[in-house]
Design brief:
- There is one protein chain.
- This protein has helices at 12-18, 26-38, 61-67, 81-89, 103-110, 114-130, 153-166, 182-195, 212-221, 249-258, 267-278, 288-295; strands at 7-10, 43-48, 73-77, 94-100, 134-140, 144-145, 149-150, 170-175, 200-205, 226-229.
- The strands form two sheets. Strands 1-2-3-4-5-8-9-10 form an eight-stranded parallel β-barrel, surrounded by nine helices. Strands 6-7 form a two-stranded antiparallel ribbon.
- The protein is globular.
- Strand 9 (200-205), helix 9 and strand 10 form a beta-alpha-beta unit.
- The chain has twelve helices and ten strands.
- Helix 10 runs antiparallel to helix 11 (267-278).
- The structure holds 3-hydroxy-3-methylglutaryl-coenzyme A and magnesium ion.
- Magnesium ion (MG) is lined by residues 15, 174, 204, 206, 237, 246.
- It holds the Pfam family HMGL-like.
- GO terms for molecular function: lyase activity.
Length: 296
């Protein structure tokens, strides 16, 4: 049985833009965020408090959070104590920490081994929870790593157990380079739903090999009712070579609509948001629903 309702967590302003070569102006990011909220999106990753030397596109994080309308959960990413501190100073109500299952990816992304990152995050998460902040943990390379290949399911579960024992509210489990297949998706998400029945479980698929929508359907069958998606299919991690964008919000919502699953999101309004950002990114946007919208 499929879930009746699904929550979409829009990651376009963060995952979607972090890898964009052209600098996107603060006002254009804010307009993108506003138009996505107008489409009915209530959970969104707005930006990241990361080193501006590592990810220059996110250097305006403080202004983006402070100038965005508070609608539901407004996530900001934080890789360490400094990021969490900046997030709290800007009054973000939800923080996303992130770690890779594989050391080689984590070292390239955060400059630490996975264990070093986890040790450093333990007190950071404790403080956030103590201050009443919603904490989401993003788990990268949960299926494949660009440097180490296939990842063992047990290693993913073990990392998730550590995060749960630290008190996180949500696990967002990612196919960073878009290599998972639907059987792998079903198996991992079934195990996660079974082991962590009281934690929010979210699936985060990149669409590098065009299997993301099939993987989402498999995750739905495993009982997952939360998905990270990106308007226009924008996105990619600068430290995961070969990875392309996230699965497109408008295409996922369209599939869910056609299955009678409620998201509260208006596909046409998402396409309007995509249209607005399209002139500010350096590649054409060619998702299924956006193309139909442009040709209608
Ligand atoms: P480091 O060089 O080891 O950091 O980088 P450090 O602690 O040694 O500090 C060096 C400098 O950075 C210092 O400044 C710090 O103050 C500053 P300086 O004294 O040289 O002027 N610094 C910071 N500045 C702003 N915000 C901070 C911060 N921390 C330190 N939070 C660090 C370590 C984590 C900072 C760096 O590696 C980094 O910023 N990495 C970010 C990588 C990133 O953003 N990746 C993309 C997001 S994850 C993703 O996309 C995957 C996901 O979508 C799921 C999936 O698909 O897999 C979530
Ligand atoms: Mg991602």
């Amino acid at each position: 049985i499929l879930p009746k309702n699904v929550t979409i967590i829009e990651v376009g302003p963060r995952d979607g833009l972090q890898n964009e070569k052209k600098h996107v102006a603060e006002k254009d990011k804010l307009q993108f965020i506003r138009s996505l909220q107008e489409a009915g999106i209530h959970e969104m990753e707005l930006t990241s408090f990361v080193s501006p030397k590592w990810v220059p596109q996110m250097a305006d994080a403080k202004a983006i959070v402070e100038k965005s309308e508070r609608v539901g959960r407004q996530f900001v990413l934080a890789p360490n104590a400094k990021g969490a501190e900046l997030a709290q100073e800007s009054n973000a109500n939800s923080v996303a920490v992130f770690v890779g299952v594989s050391d080689s990816f984590n070292e390239r992304n955060i400059n630490r081994s996975t264990d070093e990152s986890m040790d450093a995050l333990d007190p950071v998460i404790a403080k956030l929870k103590n201050d009443g902040v919603f904490v989401r943990a993003c788990i990268s390379t949960a299926f494949y790593c660009p440097y180490e290949g296939k990842i063992k399911q047990e290693d993913v579960l073990e990392l998730c157990r550590k995060f749960v024992s630290m008190g996180v509210d949500e696990l967002s489990v990612a196919d960073t380079i878009g290599m998972a297949n639907p059987v792998e998706s079903y198996e991992l998400f079934s195990s996660l739903k079974k082991e962590f029945p009281t934690i929010l479980i979210t699936a985060h698929f990149h669409d590098t090999r065009k299997m993301a929508i099939a993987n989402i359907f498999a995750a739905l069958q495993a009982g997952v009712d939360r998905f990270d998606t990106s308007a226009g299919g924008l996105g990619g991690c600068p430290f995961a070579p070969g990875a392309t964008g996230n699965v497109a919000t408008e295409d996922v919502v369209n599939m869910l609509d056609s299955l009678g699953i409620i998201t509260g999101i208006d596909v046409e309004k998402v396409c309007i948001a995509v249209d607005g950002i399209s002139e500010h990114v350096s590649h054409p946007i060619e998702t299924g629903m956006y193309r139909l919208y442009k040709n209608s």
